[in-house]
Amino acid sequence: MLALRAIPLMLAALVLGAHFLRADQVGLTAACIVFPAILMIRSRWVLRTIRIMALLAAAWWLLVTYTIFRVRLATDQPWLRMVLIMLAVAALTALVGRLFRSPQVQAHYPDRAHAAGQSVAVFFLVWGTLNLGQFLAGPLLILGRLSPWLPGIEVLLLAILAAWWIEHQALKRSLNPHIQENEQ
Q1: In angstroms, rounded to a whole number, what is the distance separating the alpha carbons of residues 162 and 41?
Q2: Looking at the domain assignment, is residue 183 inside a domain?
């Protein structure tokens, strides 16, 4: 059942990756290709991250649709079919996140230490900050200097590591209440 839900996520990520590849954004392409592997981490923050990423991807498709629409309108080219196709792509991408809300899927991804919200916030903080830095200043991290494909994967892995670490720290505190007493 979970494998069937992963297929639309993989397809949406591949289509978005193909879009970024066409725009010569190979780092983002690589991150899109690798992103569905996040499902291997069995934690509730992963489901929330997938849902938010699906909404962000759908918003990106809407922005791209509007941009292409304006160009086609200005150059007096047909635009209706393109808009309908792109809106369908955006809608299907947004629906991918909805697939991961069912109780059956959530049962496979426990919320250990009730830190899913914190882990998601840290994931997007790290992911957003590093991507913005790479966009403004070029390759910031080690792997980005080796290959144009690696920065997107490296940023994604660092965001996953940060989210996992937050969850791990919360789990450690919930299992050992003496840690909280010693910190005060």
Answers
A1: 13
A2: no
Q: pTM of the full predicted structure?
A: 0.87
**1 three-class SS:** coil
Identify whether 181 is part of a domain.
no
What's the number of domains the chain is made of?
1
Length of the chain: 184
Query: The domain containing residue 163 runs over which residues?
Result: 2-176
Residues 6+ apart with CB under 8 A from 127: 155, 156, 159
In a domain, 22, yes or no: yes
Q: Is residue 112, in this structure, part of any structural domain at all?
A: yes
Please name the residues in contact with 60: beta carbons below 8 A apart, sequence gap of 6 or more: 16
Span 131-161, pLDDT tens digits? 999 888 877 888 878 888 888 899 999 999 9
- Token pair 């809608």: residue: 91
User: At CB < 8 A and 24+ separation, what contacts does 58-66 make?
Assistant: 58/90, 58/91, 58/93, 58/94, 59/90, 60/16, 61/16, 61/86, 61/89, 61/90, 61/93, 62/86, 62/87, 62/90, 64/19, 65/90
